[in-house]
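Example with several molecule types.
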Amino acid sequence: MTYVARLKENIRARGALCVGIDPHPGLLERWGLPDDVTGVERFARGVVEALGETVAAFKPQSAFFEVWGAAGVKVLEDTIRDAQAAGALVIVDAKRGDIGSTMTAYARAYLGDGPLAGDAVTLSPYLGFGSLEPAFELAEAQGKGVYVLARTSNPEGHTVQLAAGPDGRSVVQAIVDAALARNAVTGLDAIGLVIGGTHATVGADLAGFAGPILVPGIGAQGGTIAGVRALFGDSAAPILPSASREVLAAGPDPAALRAKAGLIRGGRV
Amino acid sequence: MTYVARLKENIRARGALCVGIDPHPGLLERWGLPDDVTGVERFARGVVEALGETVAAFKPQSAFFEVWGAAGVKVLEDTIRDAQAAGALVIVDAKRGDIGSTMTAYARAYLGDGPLAGDAVTLSPYLGFGSLEPAFELAEAQGKGVYVLARTSNPEGHTVQLAAGPDGRSVVQAIVDAALARNAVTGLDAIGLVIGGTHATVGADLAGFAGPILVPGIGAQGGTIAGVRALFGDSAAPILPSASREVLAAGPDPAALRAKAGLIRGGRV
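Resulting structure tokens for the full complex:
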């Protein structure tokens, strides 16, 4: 079963919402947890226990685990396993991007059979969309997915993403087109995109793109579900809005986390 | 003491060469090691024991450690410590890039006091040069360095890096200019650049840039020390050519590794 088929099934059964797992110092403090690896572990476990059976997907943010080195990465491993065991898909938000054998290693780490492999991983294309090829191949072979950063939610992104390539297309449009072309060849729609939910317009023509689109920036960054609907209209792509702080700040009470996730998913905040 | 001062001192004492630590399957096999975390550990230790007292810097490639999850990341921690203990600088080649509190976490992980912190880290600016600000601030505060990907050594990079921004400057030129401006304000030259050694021209005007420049692609990718000299001319920047496979394939014999590193450093291969 392909990643996109599993994603569509989870969205149908649980609604279209991905929740970030971002154990940053401010949230740890809010949850009454120490800013150390035990705090990170209790935070991540709390999020998965509260929401693992009700959200379509989790997006653990690798950085907050890497802060604590190998001990933190061990917590990330456990978080991925626990989230999958609860029926949620896991998108490891690692924004990796490199070339050649190094890119192959990142693919193996996050899309292979190792302890950090989730269902999908985010990738950063500064070295060119084509440099990510080893990850595309492994995702396709393994029934997993990738989300290539296209148009990110932050205000500084346009300096790179809206720059014009040699043929006049913007960087983001060239990435959309390349992802669409690849998915058309494979028929697997394993190549998804990250498009922030904070912009009034996508900044690229998405017509015909049917791979998954991850839409961060919902909630604290200013994006809304209504805004996402307006942004993507009747796109054929499975759209997965993602909220982090807005949900997580409702914790650690599990019922409060579930209530906030439900409100956001329903477009009521 | 700033990172750039320590780098210049190491280059003066040991010559200008950085050696990558890239335990990929092909090299592990060549060294007679298993493709598992024990192989990675023995490989990394072998490189550091052979070259730690003679090369200016090491550039461990995070991907090859992440393949093995927390166990691999533990080996990366140990490799960083061992390399620094031998007097080499450590540039963690992680190509991280994100926004806000996530970028702050990556900065803390690789430039703070934690187990994965080296002397410098590579950063990827797809989300905009400005998004990397938390890393710039921490590097400056800690006497450490960052190398922002500008023009990478691979053939696919130009699709993003040579695209033209709103003011007509290329993405790479805008990054060079922003790094130069930042270093001029701080006087610390903590912001370095990655510029691949495989191109005939840099593709950007580096005049006045005095931060460190990491130049990968020497050896197996086709770059040479003579080419690096031609590429950067009489630049004021400390230039650090970096070779990986070309050196590593000479192992596991320590004398052979040292001999090959010496030949490359001297521009004789």
